[in-house]
Amino acid sequence: MAKSKFEYVRNFEVDDTCLRNCWIVVRLDGRNFHKFAEQHSFTKPNDDRALNLMTRCAQAVMEELEDIVIAYGQSDEYSFVFQKKSNWFKRRASKFMTHVASQFASSYVFYWKDYFQDQTLLYPPGFDGRVILYPSNQNLRDYLSWRQADCHINNLFNTVFWNLVQKGGLTTSQAREIEGRHGTLSGDKNEILFSEFNINYNNEPLIHRKGTALVWKKIDEITTKTIKLPNEEKEKEIVVTRTRKKVTPLHCDLIGEEFWEEHSEILEDDS
Ligand code: DGT
Ligand code: MG
Ligand code: MG
Ligand code: MG
Q1: How much is the average pLDDT of 236-248?
Q2: What CATH class is the domain 15-144?
């Protein structure tokens, strides 16, 4: 086909191909969720409806898009890790970022009512996205460890803070003052929870302490099928086992070795 004289404008598009052999991570984060959580009456410090909705959206992203090997989420954020050999959309960063963000955001609205039966969605939420490339397995593990450590630090802080307010009857500024006095030492925060509220932090729900990792798990799907053999009169029932891959949520430690030994397939292709 003959080219129009306008065709040259295409040359203004820039190349944003992700470097080969690197893990491609897309992280989304809710836009102004401080306000969104207030307006939709999220429970403090953790709203399980909101956390489970985030995970439902991440599951949709993993199932709809190609090549995601693991996702990790906490608070209003989710990270998606694409295979280092992925050639999806010729590794164009903008394609990865925009497909993840739009699929996630539309899922958030689509599945809202399944998690918030008594709370209408008051306005359309938005999510920002970024792409980060990690050249080594260690870098990728450190990235996920960083996000999980962030989950832990924030959750410990928030658990102390909201116990001081909700059960201790302190004002938010008094609670902030006490947390400030104890600095960032987690031992001190554990101590406040135990001595003041008889809470052992280690018994708090794993989903709040560890966040949520989504991985592919092989499951055997057993069904029965009715077949008719050519030489036989009667139909026959046979059992068929099919192995399918299913997205599965886990609330476990990602920092130590155990997870990576148990799920060695995630990092396996290290060439
Ligand atoms: P941004 O990301 O710069 O647009 O601003 P925010 O407000 O989204 O800030 P961010 O992402 O650093 O912090 C997440 C906010 O979301 C934080 O203020 C608390 C809120 N949030 C997340 N999960 C929950 C929850 O389960 N319960 C409540 N009450 N709030 C939550
Ligand atoms: Mg942000
Ligand atoms: Mg946010
Ligand atoms: Mg956030």
Answers
A1: 93
A2: alpha beta
